[in-house]
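Open question from group meeting: does this chain pack into something compact, or does most of it stay loose? Before anyone orders reagents, we agreed to write out a predicted structure and look at it together. Recording both the input and the output here so the notebook holds the full record.
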Amino acid sequence: MATTADAPSPGATGPAGNPVRRVRDVVPADLWDKQVGLLMRDHPYDSVMAARVLGQGYAYLLTAMSHRGEGLGLVPGKLVDIGVHTVILDTVAYAELCEKFNGGQFLHHVPEVDMKNDGSVLKTADIVAADGWEVDLPLWTDAADCGPCHPGNDAH
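C-alpha cells returned:
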C-alpha cells in the first residue's frame, strides 16, 4: 500500500528499501514556484496544499511516463488530477518534461466522461510508491474507487 509522505526524512526509503525520490529534485525551482502560484490562483489552496497537489501530479505523470506501453490504466484521482492539469496546461514546460522523461513522446490527455469504480486510483498510488516517489495518500483517497481517465491507454 502507498505511504503518506509529505516530506521524507533524510535517508527515507520506499517500499523496496530504495531512497524515496522527491519531485522537487526533478522540477526546476522557478517552474515549481510558478505552478504552485497557478494552483493558488485557480483553487482555494494555500502554498502548502498547492505544493502537495502539484507534487503528486508530477509523481503521477512521471510514473505514467516510466510505464509507457504497459497498459496499466493508471488514474490520478480528483485532487491529484488538479495537479496533473496544472502541469500539462503549462505546455512549454510539459513538452520539455515529456522530452526528458518520456523519450520525446507526448503523454496525451484522454479524459472520460464516466467515472470507473474499479479501485484504480489506489492501485495507481501503489505503483507511484513502488516507483519510489513520495505518495501523499490523503490526496489519493478522495476518489479511491473511481477515476476519469481512459483505461489501459498510454495517456492521462
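Observations to bring back to the group:
Residues 23-149 form one domain.
Helices lie at 29-42, 47-66, 78-89, 91-101, 120-130.
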